Amino acid sequence: MNSPALLSSKDHKNLRVRDEPLGAKFALRNSSIVLQEFPHLSLEYPLLFTKSLETGGFVCVAVFGFDEGENLFVENDQWNALYIPLNIRRQPFMVGTQSKPVDGDKTETEHVVFIDLADPRVQEDNGEALFNERGFPTPYLEKMTSMLKVLKDGFAETQLFINKLLELDLIAPTTLKIELINQEQRHIQGFYSIDESKLKSLPGETIAELHSLNYLRPIYTMLTSFGHIYSLINKKNQKLRP
Amino acid sequence: MTTPLKSVVIVGGGTAGWITAGTIAAKHHAASEFGVKVTLIESPDIKPIGVGEGTWPTMRGTLRKMGISETAFIRECDAAFKQGAKFAKWVDGSDDDFYYHPLVLPTGFLKGNLAPYWQMDNQGKSFSQATCFQEALCEHGLAPKAMTTPEYEAVANYAYHLNSAKFSEFLKQHCLTQLGVHYVCDNVIQINSAENGDIASVSTQANGDIEGDLFVDCTGFRSLLLGEHFKVPFIDKSDVLFIDSALAVQAPYSDENAAIATHTISTGQEAGWVWDIGLQTRRGIGYVYSSRYTNDERAEQVLADYLETNVGKGAGKLSMRKIPIHSGHRQIFWKNNCVAVGLSSGFLEPLESSALVLVELAAEMISDQLPRCREVMDIIAKRFNTTFLYHWDRIIDFLKLHYILSKRTDNKFWIDNRDPATIPDSLKELLELWRYQHPWDHDFTSRCEVFPAASYQYVLYGMGFKTRTEHITLAPAEVEFAQQQLRDNERMIQKVVSMLPRHRELLQKVHQYGFQKI
Q: What is the pLDDT of residues B362-374, one digit of tens each?
């Protein structure tokens, strides 16, 4: 069986998703986020940019740790935060594309829902059902599907935001040197942030344009959220304490 | 009263012409009204010779200074990444005879010389294996960077292999649309002198006389301005470098996903060597040889054999193009208000891809030192001539080094190459020095050496040269430094091999996504 697989009421009629703490599965340093979630995320996470390993393109991320696979928000499988990014909560579902034929030789790409069958929460014994007796989606699946839709549209919108920042030369590598309580000095690489001095030197009409695009608020949200790096360092230090 | 320099006229297109035009135009704001006017005259009848498909890492800086996007360059010039050269069958001609000249410096090179320690305790590793992580990348067919690496930046230092006809056209479009270079498509039919012997103007068939303050001769082997007009003599170097002919083919890949070599492969043959470079869509392969030691028919057979073995059955029938090679250079390169760049200044066999790097160095020096007025031009010309004579001599020494360290005896070509009468005194002196001390920076005197001491180390020790060590005692700190560096290199190999993508895969992604600028 393929994993992920295109979700169908025929093949996956009896599947259920077990309700487990999210922390167990997400040993991640960061995860992609969308503009709509910035206000919630900025209460706890540093919001930065990183590059996709696959495409080299920039993505907005919430940062959870400093090392590969380090999620400092997770303790005893519990994700201790007020808000968990949509891109985490949408799992084990994901959006994919497939081309469908329309009149004759032409095809068009449509978005479809995939399910990650390798996710241990996906099984047939207990948890939330995906389809009811008659093969229609359950309210649970409806909720997850609409979350996927928000994410899909959100990623497209966030990409436009990133493109605008790149066009204005506003993204710069983040110099992140941290010192831990064991005196270890760490140089954290791979994160990018908004160049505040360049932002300040933008001409009035460009600022007005950013304002009209509703980009000023996420820009400042990202800048302010940087302070959460210190609470992350704090979390890391607490783990280092004997 | 002084005569300010306001206008540069470049005669001849091709890579030399367009690199020079682009470099000067970008630095001297040719597109603006206060800038220097740059005009390029290109003959509609002369096709560029199309040599020089390999570059040096300097090309990254050259392109960046012209304001070119690396993504656009790679997409449009069929370009691939080059991480050095692999020399096969140069030492004794056996099947396992090879060594690398990578582009990454030996580990810790800026802090200390590892060659003495390596020679005393190499644990069976070749110099390039022990001191440089790049050979592993080449052997695994891995790219020198990842998609997350910004444009022009590297994980492992790199240059390019490129399609020179496409490159020329790409530069031309950039020069005309972005840099404000004036373009005249016409034949130059006459050169008109001023009273002081300078070139006052060149006459064209359809566009009249074109005046200029500085003329750049990019007319290729013909050397129309420097050679024909100023009669600057050609210094023949065929007594040192015997290669005088090339046979070139364009070979297809077995399929569209075949691995692309990320280094130039140079394989020694009976009377010369075969180059093999990988572009995105094809390989460029050719045999350069000395007609004094073989004949054209035999050379075609040697190349056909290489193609049958290394490209595939039937590849020996690919059509071959013959190109003559006259090794040597002009006595001087800048005379009066005329400077030659590219083939018009000289040519050498493409053993270490020196053709394009010389174009870049010349374009850069002309652009950096561009005389503000005629009154200072002779001083700059003199310096330019000294600098470039030095470059040519060092390149000739370096190329000759590859031949004299060979132990091949299968053809008089190799034996005669080791005849002391054919070795320049400057090279003899260096070799004598290196019998007792390992090459290091002070052996060379120029600010921008084409081949640094590291290159000499790679070739010398790659070819089995032995520096005598009985007079050398390493201090404990030096031993510790060397051991640490060699361990670091081991770790670096593990790291880059697990992290970097396959060469073709990265090129495909450059087409799909492009590199970020930061």
A: 999 999 999 999 9
- Pick from B149, B509, B517: CB nearest A55: B509
pLDDT at A4: 85
Which residues on chain A are in Cβ contact (under 8 Å) with B149? 56
* Residue B140 contacts A, CB cutoff 8 Å: no
Q: Which of B419, B388, B393 is nearest to B404 (CA)?
A: B419
Instruction: Tell whether the model's pLDDT for residue B439 goes beyond 80.
Output: yes
Contacts of B508 (CB under 8 A, 6+ apart): none
User: If we measure between CA atoms, which residue out of A41, A63, A73, A82 comes closest to residue A239?
Assistant: A73
Contact, A153 vs A147, CB < 8 A? Answer: no
Q: Do residue B514 and residue A52 have CB atoms under 8 angstroms apart?
A: no
Pairing mode of beta strands A176-179, A185-188: antiparallel
pLDDT in tens, A169-228: 999 999 888 888 888 888 988 999 999 999 999 999 999 999 999 999 999 999 999 999
User: Tokens in use for A220?
Assistant: 């400042």
A145 close to A90: Cβ distance less than 8 angstroms: no
- DSSP conformation letters of B51-78: ---B--THHHHHHHHTT--HHHHHHHTT
Q: How far apart are CA A181 and CA A240, in angstroms?
A: 8
Interface residue of B152, B516, B517 to substitute, partner A, most A CBs within 10 Å: B516
Contact B364, B62 (CB under 8 A): yes
Interatomic CA distance for residues B311 and B252, integer angstroms:
8
User: Nearest-CA distance from B148 to chain A in Å?
Assistant: 4
Cβ atoms of B247 and B320 closer than 8 Å:
yes
Residue B323 contacts residue B220 (beta carbons within 8 Å): no
Three-class DSSP category at B409: coil
- How do residues A98-147 score in pLDDT, each as one tens digit? 887 777 677 888 888 999 988 888 888 888 889 998 889 999 999 999 99
pTM of the model: 0.91
Q: What angle do CA A80, A82, A84 make, to 5 degrees?
A: 80
Tell me if A172 and B518 make a contact (CB, 8 A cut-off): yes
* Helix/strand number for chain A, H first, E second: 7, 15
Alpha helices (H) in chain A, listed in sequence order: 38-41, 86-89, 139-167, 196-200, 204-212, 216-225, 228-240
What residues in A contact B147, CB-CB < 8 Å? 51-56
Return d(Cα B461, Cα B506) in angstroms, integer.
32
Residue B281: predicted pLDDT: 94
- pLDDT at res. A13: 86
